[in-house]
Amino acid sequence: MVKISTFLRLSLFLLFAFILPPFAEAAVELSLSGRAPVIIQEVYNQGGVAYVALDQALPALGMVGHWDSVEHIYSIKTPQGTAVIFPGCRYLRLRTRFVPLPYPPLFIDGKLRVAEDFLYEQLPSLLGIAVQFQNLDPTFSTPTGQDTSLDRLFAFLLKKKDVEAGSGLRGLAIDPGHGGTDPGSVGLDGVKEKDVVLEVARLLAKNVKMRLGIPVFLTRDKDYSLSLEKRHQVANEPQVDALILLHAQAGFRPEAQGITLYIRPENGPEKDRGAGNDMGSRLLADYLADMLKRAGFIVNPIQTAQLLPLGRGDLPSVLVEMGYLTNPEEKARLVDEDYQKNLANVIFNAIQEFSDSQKEKMP
Predict the structure, then answer these.
(1) Class of domain 22-152
(2) Could you identify which of 4, 256, 271, 358 might form a hypothetical disulfide with 251, taking C-beta atoms 3.0 to 4.6 angstroms apart as the criterion?
(3) What is the pLDDT of residues 297-315, one digit of tens each?
(4) How far apart are CA 345 and CA 283, in angstroms?
(5) Where are the alpha helices (DSSP H) in 227-327?
(6) Integer angstrom CA distances of residue 97 from 82, 93, 122, 356
(7) Alpha carbons 299 and 103: distance in angstroms, whole number
(8) Among 53, 190, 197, CA closest to 112
(9) Beta bridge partners of 355
């Protein structure tokens, strides 16, 4: 028995040593040009993008930073002054400059983490330094040339299905953003975007099922993480004729306010790749904007966006940024149950009008 046990232990050791990939592969190498690289092994995959903790990355570049747990901001000391970022914000602020970030910082497992391109593109260009970066995990695709995570994002093709005459919408997909280890924007008093959008999504789904009588497909109904692939699987259900994505914003200015609606560019990458214009999204966004304004909500102009999980194709899709969690008044409203019910009801009314318009278009 002793000999057999020893043999099994040796076999398991060889299995882990030679067959399974080493832990170091799930890591990135980072350093200033000409210096020995530092290996960071705690790397998170969020929608195909590698996220690294600033507390681990900055020392490798000879820099220091600090997370303010009260203000929920991260300050980075630079030769040009203090740069500031925070979860969910798509800009880095350095004095009067605002540097756009293709992927917002995320607060994951107790640390603020940034996308890999922040470390080898935005930060070096801002500071005028050369950074060496290598992703050691083969499951990630480190962007080179035109092969970026944006290309992978637009690889999702959300096609509108053939609709029977006079049917209107047959089904709706609702995607409450973020979830699990990804809280999204973190607002005043620690309010998390993932919690607010989930509550409104549940209320909206109930409205649609009860009043329109059509199936609703939620990408998540609880607090858990989802890959981009999983989110788009729901939108590609055969009965789904429209997609609503729910988010909440964060901004540097506390006075920033209002609901913002995002759609795919009508003449953007999807047209270039043969998917054609997506007028259904524009129409749905118009109904949403009009209904929200009539109900007394502050609504900003409809925006087109390429860096949001809207996919490609002609499935009517609108991303609803429900307000700013960094605005004291809007934050207070967004966590209020009555306000959430009212918002969900108004969004439903717009969806119902859009559904009716699809019936009228049928021959």
Answers:
(1) alpha beta
(2) 256
(3) 999 999 887 655 666 778 8
(4) 19
(5) 228-235, 269-272, 279-294
(6) 11, 6, 13, 46
(7) 24
(8) 53
(9) none
Residue 72 CA, distance from chain mean position: 19
At 221, is the secondary structure helix, strand, or coil?
Answer: coil
Whole-structure pTM value:
0.67
For the chain, where do the domains classified as CATH 3.30.457.10 start and end?
Answer: 22-152
User: What is the SS3 assignment for 292?
Assistant: helix
Q: What DSSP assignment string belongs to 150-214? A: HHHHTT-B-PPPP--TT---S-EEEEE--BTTB---B-GGG-BHHHHHHHHHHHHHHHIIIII--
- Token reading at 308: 């949001």
Span 48-70, mean pLDDT? 87
CATH of domain 154-361: 3.40.630.40
Contact 29, 39 (CB under 8 A): yes
CATH 3.40.630.40 segments of the chain: 154-361
Whole-angstrom CA distances from 176 to 31, 165, 190, 226, 231 are 37, 30, 19, 10, 10
Two tokens at 320? Answer: 């609803």
Q: Out of 2-6, 45-49, 161-165, give the one with best mean pLDDT.
A: 45-49
Signed CA dihedral, 160, 166, 171, 172: sign only: positive
DSSP single-letter state for residue 259 = B
